Amino acid sequence: MLVIQAKRSNPLRARNWVSSISLELLVFAYLKLANDVENQFTFPLFINFLVISILICFCVFCCVYVEKWNEINYKCFLTTALLQISLHCLYGQRLIDASESIAEAVYCSGWYTTPKKIKTSLIILLYRAQKGVCVTTYGFSIVCLSSYATVICLKLI
């Protein structure tokens, strides 16, 4: 009802209100989805990172010290293990980057021209969006590109 009245007076302002409301709903759905992903996959990601880290250590050790004749097989397996971890970390980094850009999107949406009720919701959303969303490995580390770099550096030293 409020949007219809505003639409008659200023179509641009009404469009901003509608986009602000749809942005708010989209962000809340996004945050809920990210929380569900964190709750469902945190322990399996921890086990995956632990097992892959052990396998990377084993492959590097076998490539360097043990079996020179089977070196190509170990290098192929090492490549696939690193690729697997890199995919998890890449999408984790994309989640972090997207969650950090929510606050900027809310601020640039023209929230200050909206009615008081919508403005209050958007300010709450703005404060909430300043805290990033991330997926962790059971609280051990954050799944992002910096953790991928740490895994590579620790395994190759």
From TrEMBL:
Transmembrane residue ranges? 12-31, 43-66
Source species, domain of life: Eukaryota
The cross-references to Pfam families, in alphabetical order and at most eight, read: 7tm_6 (PF02949)
Localisation? Membrane
Q: Which UniProt keywords apply?
A: Membrane, Olfaction, Receptor, Sensory transduction, Transducer, Transmembrane, Transmembrane helix
Q: Name one GO biological process term.
A: signal transduction
Please provide one cellular component term from the Gene Ontology annotations of this protein. plasma membrane
Example GO molecular function: olfactory receptor activity
Give the way it sits in the membrane.
Multi-pass membrane protein
What InterPro entries has UniProt attached to this entry?
A: 7tm6_olfct_rcpt (IPR004117)
Chief location of this protein? membrane
Please state what the protein is called: (apollo) hypothetical protein
Protein species of origin: Parnassius apollo (Apollo butterfly)
